[in-house]
Protein: Class I SAM-dependent methyltransferase
Organism: Vibrio porteresiae DSM 19223
Amino acid sequence: MNNYFDSVAAEWDNNPAKIERATATAQQIKQLSLASYDSVVDFGAGTGLLGVQLRDLFQCVHLADASNNMLEIAQQKIAQAQLTNVHTHFVESLADIPGSHSAIVTLMTLHHIHNVGEFFAAAYQKLQAQGMLVIADLYAEDGSFHKHNPDFDGHNGFDLDELCQKAKQAGFSITKAAPYYDIRQENRDGVDTVYPLFLLAVVK
C-alpha cells in the first residue's frame, strides 16, 4: 500500500476532486463542538490536504502518514507557507503517535486499515478525556472504487451501523453519523458512479 501512495504522491494535489473532498471534510470538522482544541492528529494525512486546513482551529496539527513521499510534499507546503504549528510524522500505525490529543481525524484512511477494532482501541488511548475521533470514509461499495489500485487489499467501504457498534465497544459515544459528500468517478465498467462518504464523530 505504501508503495502505491509513494508512487502517486507527486500528482496527488493536482486532482481538484481530492482538494474539494478535503475542504468539505474540514468544513464538517469545524462545525463540531470539541472539548479542547490543543492538538489534532490527521492520521493518513498524505500531503496534508485536510490537516493543513485545520491549522487555525487547533493550536497544533500533526500530519501522520506511512508514505515518506506524501510527507515530503506536506513538508514543502509547511515550509512554503511558513506554518509554525503544523508538523509531519512518519508512522506505521496510530499507536506510534506520541502524546495525547484533543482530536484524531481521518479522511479515506480507515478502509486501508485491516483491523478496525484495533484502530478504535488505539484512538481511544491517544485521545484526551472528552477527545473526539472523526472518521470520513466510504459507505459499503462493490469494490469498484479502487479499480485504479490493483494492490488494494482493504475494506470496500463500511456499514455505518456496524462501525458505530465497533466504536461503542471501544468505549466511545456517538456524536454524529451521517452522509456528507459524494465522490463521482467511473467504476470498473466505465460507468459514472456515485460513492457516498459518511462522517462519523465519536467522543471518548
